[in-house]
Amino acid sequence: MSLDRVWLERDGIRLSALRADGDGVPVVLLHGLAGSAVELAPLAAGLGADGHQVVAVDQRGHGHSTRLPADVSRAAYVADAVAFLDEPAWLIGQSMGAHTAMLVAAARPDLVRGLVMIEGGVGGATDDYPARLGSWFAGWPAPFADEAAAREFLGDTPMARAWLADLEARDDGLWPRFDADIMEAAIRGVASTACWPEWRRVTAQTVLVQGEHGNQDPDEVRRMRAKPGVRHIVVAGAGHDVHLDRPDETLQFLRALLR
User: Fold this and answer.
1) Which domains, ranges and CATH numbers included, belong to the chain?
2) What string of DSSP letters covers 94-143?
3) Is the pLDDT of residue 1 over 80?
4) Rounded to two decimals, what is the model's pTM?
């Protein structure tokens, strides 16, 4: 089914999202770092075809939303997500988006029917991976002359194809829809603190979705699974980007869950 692009303004920034209207269960989809709603469009369309009310958000600094927001704190991302919640909804997030969804569920249990965390945890880090990610993004030879040049650099992985599908055409070539320094600052908020107190405050039914070849810390996953009522699923053959590596399995699982 077709999706509509909608806009919401708050806190001096403009947020974009792809929406499927329906009278079924409300669902909000949150992408990971350096992603966008475009990579979640197949899930949004699939769930929308079932009649659900679905919103796939371009989080601040990503996609069509404000590219250079002054505030990239965890609190800002949480407030953005809450702004799209007109009624209690299922929150489905991947990686950084899962972390955002978890914080929303902890802060506003009245607005969360259920929580799905795809390859996402409580945050915190023992190394400076935000700097490594920032350096890698800064090393992209943008602008790319054309799609072929972008594909040659990015490769042909599912995540690379998602980036290719959402490049921004300007007069001087094709640009990613994010800036490296914003990405580093945004993920540093996730890495700075392990939010175990917030995790313990989550009361919504929760499903942890892990890729067989993902990059989550096994000890963290075991500790999260120990919480009563938490369901854990491992998707065979998938890496960190479960929704892109195994899109059909992901959609079918979510359809069953929402039914």
Assistant:
1) 4-124+194-258 (3.40.50.1820)
2) ETHHHHHHHHHHHH-GGGEEEEEEES--S---SS-HHHHHHHHHHTS-PS
3) no
4) 0.97
